[in-house]
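Data availability (excerpt). The following record was deposited with the supplementary files.
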Amino acid sequence: MAELTWSETRGLMTLPVEVTLQTLPQLLKSKAVLKHQVLEVDFSDVKLVDSAALALLLVWSGNTATALKVINMPAELHTLTVLYDLETVLGL
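Predicted structure:
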């Protein structure tokens, strides 16, 4: 299974191919992942996503004073963001 890739110098979190409720426990094997000061989240490699990714975005957006930059957000995740009226919360 792929893992999250963290670049502390850029504040960039790159997500793996699959970010779902089933893969989330493995992705969060280090709970420190939730405490990173994430400034950007890159979905470029993501092929399968569900609300678990939205939960990660909400946690990371709460850890920073600036707007979270989301790169290549999958359409289905954008749909969930709109459905839950979270565009302003996530700075989209």
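Summary of structural features: The CA atoms of residues 5 and 14 lie 5 Å apart.
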